[in-house]
Amino acid sequence: MTRTAEMSDALQGAVDRGEMVPWFQPQYDLRTYRLVGAEVLCRWDHPEWGLIRPNDFIPLAEETGIIDEIGQCMTEHALTAIGEWRIDISVNVSPVQLQDAEFTSWLEAALSRARHPAKRLTVEITEGRDLGNVPPLVARLDRLRSHGVGIAIDDFGAGHASLAQARRLHATELKIDRHLTGDDSPETTAQIAKAVAFARDAELRTVAEGVETTAQLHRVRQLGCDRGQGYLWSRPVPHDEMARMIAAS
Q1: How far apart are CA 19 and CA 60, in angstroms?
Q2: What is the structure's pLDDT at 62?
Q3: CA 144-88-161 angle, 5° bins
Q4: If 0-12 CB within 10 Å is exposed, 13-18 middle and 19+ buried, where does residue 186 land?
Q5: How far apart are the first and last CA of the chain?
Q6: pLDDT tens track for 65-98
Q7: Greatest CA span in the chain, whole angstroms?
Q8: Of 143, 142, 206, 138, whose CA–CA distance to 173 is shortest?
């Protein structure tokens, strides 16, 4: 049996067995340097293979349809974290999930049950991914926005027609791709400045991803980004460590 086939078999029931666990990477306000939010990141804690990162199993989960279970699981963890920590939480949502109207209905019901402010939740959509049939997807995102949920374009600048896509998806946040954050060339600096100017005009929040050095921090701050996340502050950490960081902030 190939490794892919093994992983495909192992993914069956992984959510029910509690193997899909949330890790968190904090986000900081670049004006006050206060911890104000976190991104939920899925990790597969396999009993034999250990901790597996999402890039190694999410594409397979999308192919096999298990992404729906994983997405709901991580979103539930996000809602729990909002209730526990009273900070903003973002969670990645696959375009595959958003093509199914049931996910939107499920999230609306979950928000109602949780009774936490929906504005604390942001769903992230990867900018470079194929979004499929866009008009129905936009209608579903608009339904979530009507409840107060934020819509973020993840890895902004890594794909194509970024600004156009942000407009058509009615985004509320741009997450500047880590490769742009780490590139201090005049061309990239101008690209980030253009994105920030667009975001300000459209009243969108900007988050600089992949901030690893103080020089990068000062640069994205001077360019006007609202928030930052990256190894300068913290790598993704498990729940208990994130809780300690919040308590100490």
Answers
A1: 16
A2: 87
A3: 60
A4: exposed
A5: 48
A6: 899 999 999 999 999 999 999 999 999 998 788 8
A7: 54
A8: 206
